[in-house]
Amino acid sequence: MKNLLFPILLFFTLVPVSAQDSVEELLKKYNTGSVSYISVEQLRMKQLKDEVILLDTRSAEEFEVSHIEDALLVGYDDFDLYRLPNISKDKNIIVYCSLGIRSEQIGEKLKKAGFENVQNLFGGIFEWKNTGFPVVDKEGEPTEKVHAYSKQWAKWLKNGEKIY
């Protein structure tokens, strides 16, 4: 998997992304739709009822800046099914990353491994924060900081302090 990371990161760095592209257009451009989406509002309702397991598919560096409360870091380039905590395959699992591109790939792996109820957070943590929902830092304290992945992708983060 690490051998694939460099070409993927290079691709996302070199492919032009128009400022006019909406998040929806961006996700249509890079995702296949193989993992169904859940909106931030739908996730918030489920989260308040404690009905989901949240898996953050970003890097540890991104996760430490901030993440959605109660999310488990599973990573992207170092993702390993065998390191997941003991999660029943019938649980509601929501994967997310910055916008929803990396998380779709991890969602596909989970589905292939037999997890039945996997969804991808539409717009990722950026949309979560843009909507005004809270994020926490590595100590679990509320923060306005969000790792913006790169200056190119940061344009979709409209609410919060961008960290690189």
Automatic annotation (TrEMBL):
Official protein name in the record: Rhodanese-related sulfurtransferase
A GO term, aspect molecular function:
transferase activity
**Can you name the source organism?**
Christiangramia gaetbulicola
Q: Which UniProt keywords apply?
A: Signal, Transferase
- Record bears the keyword Transferase: yes
Domain of life of the organism encoding this protein? Bacteria
Q: Does the keyword Signal apply?
A: yes
Which N-terminal residues, if any, form the signal peptide? 1-19
Q: Which NCBIfam families match?
A: rhoda_near_glyco
Residues covered by the Rhodanese domain: 48-137
Which Gene3D superfamilies does this UniProt record tie to the protein? Rhodanese-like domain
